[in-house]
Design goal:
Elements (H helix, E strand, L loop, with lengths): L2 H7 L8 H5 L7 H10 L30 E2 L10 H16 L11 H11 L7 E4 L2 H11 L8 E5 L7 H9 L3 E5 L8 H7 L4 E7 L11 H10 L3 E5 L11 H4 L3 E5 L11 E5 L17 E6 L19 E5 L3 H5 L6 H17 L1 H21 L3 E2 L9 E5 L3 H11 L2 E2 L1 E2 L3 E5 L6 H10 L4
Parallel strand pairs: 1-13, 3-4, 3-5, 5-6, 6-7
Antiparallel strand pairs: 2-8, 7-8, 9-10, 11-12, 12-15, 14-15
Bound molecules: pyridoxal-5'-phosphate.
Length: 442
C-alpha cells in the first residue's frame, strides 16, 4: 500500500471481520478488493525498457564530466547522469509548484521496483524498498530472529567493513560467529565448505567485495549452505548494475543494495530481495502502512461500523499485510527523489546492458592489472576478478598518494593502507593512463 492508497481508503473501505482480515481474509466490499488488487505488485516478466538509441561505451556524453577531472571512483559514489538529473528536476518542479504542473511525478514506485527486479532476475514481489544496504541486511537478521544465543553464522572479512561490527555485536549477544579471512585476496570456497555445518543459520557475504572486487561463486556458496540447511545473505551493492546478478540462477536467499553506486541513483533508497519461498520463514519486527494490502478504520464519522463481536479492546482498524517482500519490510514513505533518479538510471542500465558495462570495465581494469605491478604496486585484487574494482595494498597509501593524485586531479578511493580504482561507463583508457602517470613509481 502507498500513502495515496491509505489517504484514499481511510474510512472508505471495509474488510470482512477482524480475525479474517488480520489473517489476510477476503475483502467484503468490491471497492476494497479492487483497490487491493491495484495495490498488489505486478507479477511476471517486466515490460522491455523504452526503445531508445543504443548507447556505446565509453559514454561520457550522458554525464556532466568536467574536462579537468579524472574520476575513477564510481564505486564510492557514482556520478548522477544528465538524464537522471533531468528526471530529478522534473520531480522537484512537480513538488515545488504544488499545483500539478507537471501533472504527475513522472514515475511509479511499482514500475521502478519492476525495473530493478528485472536487473537481478527477480520477481517484483520479491523486492522491498529499504533505506540502505545496511538497513536491508539488519532487517533480514532481525527477521531471522538474530541475535539468538548459540545460533551459528558465517561471515567473511571481505564483506562490507561497515557490516563487520553488526556481526561483532551478534557475537557479543551470544551468536556463534565464524569469521573467514582472505587468502591471496580471496575467500576460498573450501573455507566456506569447512565453516558451514549442520545447523548453521546464515552465511553473510558480499557478492563482490568492496575491499578488492573479489567475487564469490554465489551459486556454489548457496549450494553448500542450502545442503546444510543454512540461508545466504548477499550484499550486492558492488554487483547490481556492474556485474551480472541472477538471484534465480544462484539461489541466493536475501540480497540488499543501495542505489548511489552502480545503480546511478542517490543515498537514502535501496532494494532488499527476499526469495519468494523464504518469505514465510521471516518474522519482521515492525509493521508500517506501506506493508499493507488492506486497511479500514472504524472510529471516525461515516466509517463502516465495527463488527459488534469484537469488543472495545480490539483495535478500531482492520488491516492485512501484503503477501510479498514489501509486506515484510515496507514501513512508510521512501525517497521519491531517489525513485526519480532510479526510474531513469535503471532504464539506462537496461539499455546499455550489464554485459556491455562489465566488458567495458574489463578492458580498463586489464590495463591496471598489468601496469600497476610493473610500477611496483602490490595488487590485492585477484587477477581473474571480473568486477570494475582494482585494489592495491600500500602502507600509508593515503599519506603517500593524496598529494600527487590531487595535483593531477585524479580521484580514486584512498584508504590508510590501500587504494582502490573503480571504473564505469564514462571512463576511458586515457583516464587509466592519467592515473598511472600520476602515481609515483615505487
Ligand atoms: C559492500 C558495501 N556494502 C554496503 C555499503 C554501505 O551501504 P549503505 O550505506 O547503503 O548501507 C558499502 C559502502 O561503501 C559497501 O561498499
Amino acid at each position: 500500500m502507498k500513502r495515496r492508497d491509505v489517504l484514499r481508503w481511510a474510512g472508505s473501505a471495509s474488510v470482512a471481520g477482524g480475525a479474517a482480515a488480520a489473517a489476510g481474509g477476503a475483502f467484503a466490499s468490491s471497492a476494497a478488493s479492487a483497490a487491493a488488487s491495484a495495490a498488489a505488485p505486478a507479477q511476471g516478466p517486466m515490460p522491455a525498457p523504452p526503445a531508445t538509441a543504443a548507447v556505446t561505451l565509453p559514454d561520457r556524453a550522458s554525464f556532466h564530466y568536467p574536462a579537468d577531472v579524472c574520476y575513477l571512483d564510481a564505486g564510492t559514489m557514482h556520478p548522477i547522469s544528465r538524464g537522471a538529473q533531468a528526471a530529478l528536476d522534473a520531480y522537484v518542479s512537480y513538488r515545488t509548484v504544488g499545483q500539478g504542473r507537471p501533472p504527475s511525478m513522472g514515475f511509479d514506485d511499482d514500475e521502478v521496483r519492476g525495473k530493478f527486479a528485472r536487473l537481478i532476475n527477480a520477481q517484483p514481489s520479491e523486492i522491498a524498498y529499504v533505506q540502505s544496504t545496511t538497513a536491508g541486511e539488519n532487517l533480514i537478521l532481525q527477521a531471522l530472529g538474530l541475535p539468538e544465543r548459540g545460533a551459528h553464522v558465517v561471515v567473511d572479512t571481505l564483506h562490507f567493513f561497515g557490516s563487520l561490527p553488526t556481526y561483532g555485536e551478534l557475537a557479543r549477544q551470544g551468536v556463534d560467529v565464524t569469521w573467514l579471512r582472505p587468502r591471496d585476496g580471496r575467500i576460498p570456497i573450501e573455507d566456506i565448505e569447512r565453516a558451514v555445518r549442520k545447523g548453521t543459520r546464515l552465511v553473510a557475504l558480499s557478492q563482490v567485495s568492496t575491499i578488492n572486487g573479489f567475487e564469490h561463486d554465489l551459486r556454489r556458496v548457496c549450494e553448500i549452505a542450502h545442503a546444510k540447511g543454512a540461508l545466504v545473505y548477499a550484499d550486492i551493492v558492488h554487483a547490481a548494475g556492474c556485474v551480472p546478478v541472477d538471484v534465480r540462477a544462484t539461489g541466493v536467499d536475501f540480497a540488499s543494495c543501495a542505489s548511489y553506486k552502480w545503480l546511478m541513483g542517490d543515498f537514502g533508497l535501496g532494494f532488499l530481495y527476499v526469495r519468494k519461498d523464504r518469505q514465510a520463514l521471516l518474522r519482521p519486527r515492525q509493521l508500517g502502512y506501506y506493508a499493507l494490502s488492506a486497511f479500514a478504520m472504524h472510529s471516525l464519522p461515516f466509517d463502516p461500523p465495527e463488527p459488534p463481536a469484537r469488543g472495545k479492546a480490539a483495535p478500531p482498524v482492520d488491516y492485512a499485510r501484503r503477501d510479498d517482500a514489501q509486506g515484510l519490510f515496507g514501513i512508510g514513505t521512501y525517497a521519491h527523489t531517489g525513485l526519480a533518479l532510479l526510474n531513469h538510471s535503471l532504464d539506462y542500465l537496461h539499455r546499455v546492458g550489464v554485459a556491455a558495462i562489465q566488458s567495458h570495465a574489463l578492458t580498463l581494469t586489464a590495463r591496471l592489472k598489468e601496469e600497476l605491478p610493473r610500477r611496483g604496486y602490490a595488487l590485492f585484487t585477484p587477477p581473474e576478478s571480473r568486477s570494475p574494482l582494482v585494489t592495491c595494498v600500500l602502507q600509508d597509501a593515503r599519506k603517500k598518494l593524496s598529494a600527487p593524485l590531487n595535483e593531477a586531479r585524479v580521484r580514486i578511493t584512498l584508504s590508510a593502507n590501500r587504494f582502490r580504482v573503480s571504473v564505469s561507463v564514462f571512463n576511458t583508457l586515457d583516464d587509466i593512463d592519467q592515473l598511472l602517470a600520476a602515481l609515483p613509481r615505487l
